Amino acid sequence: MVFEELKKIINEIMDIPMNEIELGSHLYDEMDADSLDMSQIVLALENKYSIEIDDEVFEEFDTVGNIVEYVEKLAA
Question: CB 3.0-4.6 Å disulfide test: which of 15, 26, 60, 68 passes with 30?
C-alpha cells in the first residue's frame, strides 16, 4: 500500500513517528517539510515505484493524501 510505504519514507527522511502521519497531515504546516525533504520523498517514491513525478506536480503536494493519490494513479 502506497500510504504505508510513504509513511516509512517520511519517517526515514524527516524522523516523524509513523503513528503521527495521517492522510490529512499537511506537509508544510504540520510536518515542517522543506524543499529538500520533498525532493528526497519524491526521489524515494520514484525509485520505489519506477515512476516519474514532474516538478510542477510535486510542488502542488500539500498533504500526505495528495501524494498517495497521485502515486496510486501513476503506479496503477
Answer: 26
pLDDT tens for the chain, 76 residues long, are 999 999 999 999 999 999 999 999 999 999 999 999 999 999 999 999 999 999 888 888 999 999 999 999 988 8
Sign of CA dihedral 33, 70, 41, 1: positive
End-to-end CA distance of the chain: 12
C-alpha dist (Å) from residue 16 to 32, 53, 62: 10, 23, 16
Task: Give CA–CA dist 70/57, Å, rounded.
Answer: 9
Residue recorded with cell 500539500:
62
User: Could you tell me the pTM of the whole model?
Assistant: 0.93
